[in-house]
Write a structure and sequence with these properties.
By secondary structure, the protein is an all-alpha fold. Helices cover about 80% and strands about 0% of the residues. The chain contains 14 helices and no strands. α2 crosses α6, α3 packs parallel to α10 and α9 packs parallel to α14. The protein is globular. The termini are far apart. The C terminus is likely disordered.
């Protein structure tokens, strides 16, 4: 493996490496959107069914979306943390030309990721029923939600393997294999879901997700080892693997907490949108519509954030490889170039959301939400008219944080995100909510 990001024009290298990563990252984000959309439209009777009959109210909370929100939360956080740590360590070994060390890191990190995936799969799968009860899922959707959660939980090891093999490719400066693997997994997932959902409902969608991830994880691993025979080295003693796992967890834990901070900010805003218990009927309806609009906005923003993550991963790998090669100034320059390219893309995407929100929102609404379409679209349009101007800054922040992660400074980037997304957002949210309540203006979006 050669550190190709350490040579040639920085912008050209970054563009040719980063663009496939962005496309592949967005394809991975489509896993959730495709499943939710397909379950909502092709499941028999409702998304809450596994082939039998259900009441119409079950559709109001899709078991698939509920399971996505709960079953893979902890595994996804851990998997992303291990992937970030892998990129940071492997990219520096690649940049330094340490072939033997690079092979050891790749093999051991893949083994650690799969073992952690199995461990977390057992934990989340065994507690599936408790999680569903804690989420207060409607009774008519309860059993199906538990089954979906168990399938996605026990199958989360496929997610670990898929994320890890693509992280290894990115660290090595290979962007086409992750693009093909992630896009292929999404296409197969959609095709399998179209077949399975009319027959088994949300349960079929869960199986489609797990099997498609597993298939393409195996393809990615096979492709990696066939192309690089030098990776076929012995893992070493158990003590060596244990030390490697300890280092990956040390570097990856702040990265996992960083993602958790961003998720916590979303939960905080969602909670503030909810109506007070003593709110009148009109305020409750407005709050429900605002929450629905925010949910659609989050789905759209997820695509934008994954695009930023793609450029961020490119920046992280470039920073890591150049630091490994002793080219500190080039590492800094490529990190800022990645942030600049992201900012331009986010300005364009923000403008698209600003202008097209009224046409986009109806596509993501479920049947009972369509009855209040006008109000939800209005709230969503107002949301994008405000936040669209901040997208460029959000993109810059995400990419620079990933660049720091590539340098191994995961604690610093976590602290920055924690202060911004948790501390400042919490203070500002409560202050603004209190100010709207104080003027007696009713519910405020």
């Amino acid at each position: 493996m050669k550190g190709e990001l350490t040579q040639g024009p920085p912008l050209r290298r970054l563009a040719t490496f980063g663009l496939p990563l962005v496309i592949g990252s967005v394809a991975h984000a489509l896993f959730n959107l495709v499943d939710v959309w397909l379950v909502g439209r092709y499941a028999p009777s409702s998304g809450a069914t596994d082939g039998g009959s259900t009441t119409s109210g079950a559709r109001r909370r899709s078991p698939q979306s509920t399971c996505r929100a709960s079953s893979t939360s902890l595994p996804m956080l851990v998997a992303n943390g291990i992937s970030v740590a892998t990129i940071a360590t492997v990219s520096r070994a690649v940049g330094a030309g340490q072939t033997r060390r690079c092979a050891e890191l790749i093999n051991r990190s893949l083994l650690v990721a799969v073992l952690l995936g199995f461990l977390l799969a057992l934990v989340t799968g065994a507690t599936a029923r408790w999680q569903i009860e804690a989420l207060n899922v409607p009774r008519e959707a309860h059993d199906v939600a538990v089954r979906c959660l168990q399938i996605l939980s026990f199958g989360s090891v496929t997610m670990f393997a898929l994320l890890q093999v693509t992280a290894i490719d990115r660290a090595a400066g290979r962007s086409v294999p992750p693009l093909i693997v992630l896009t292929g997994a999404n296409i197969v997932n959609a095709a399998a879901a179209i077949y399975a959902i009319p027959r088994w409902g949300a349960v079929g969608a869960a199986w489609a997700t797990v099997l498609s991830r597993g298939l393409f994880a195996l393809i990615g691993i096979g492709w990696l080892y066939l192309q690089f025979p030098e990776l076929r080295v012995r893992l070493g003693k158990f003590r060596d693997v244990l030390l490697e796992a300890k280092e990956l967890i040390r570097v990856g834990t702040p990265a996992s907490l960083q993602i958790f901070s961003r998720a916590l900010a979303v939960l905080l805003v969602t909670r503030l949108l909810a109506p007070d218990q003593d709110a009148n009927e009109q305020a409750t309806a407005e709050a429900t519509d605002a929450t629905a609009a925010y949910g659609v906005a989050l789905r759209l923003e997820m695509i934008a954030m994954f695009a930023c993550a793609g450029w961020g991963t490119a920046g992280a790998a470039a920073v890591g490889q150049n630091l490994g090669a002793g080219q500190t100034q080039r590492a800094i320059r490529m990190g800022w170039l990645a942030a600049g390219v992201t900012a331009i893309g986010m300005v364009i995407l923000g403008a698209a959301f600003y202008l097209l929100a009224p046409k986009i929102f109806p596509f993501f609404l479920e049947e009972e939400q369509a009855q209040r379409l006008e109000t939800i679209v209005r709230y969503g349009t107002e949301y994008f008219q405000i936040v669209a101007f901040a997208y460029a800054f959000v993109g810059i922040g995400i990419v620079l944080a990933e660049a720091m992660n590539g340098a191994g400074a995961t604690r610093i980037s976590f602290m920055i995100d924690f202060v911004a997304y948790v501390v400042l957002l919490t203070i500002l949210s409560f202050v603004l909510r209190a100010s709207t309540d104080a003027v007696g203006s009713g519910y405020r979006w």
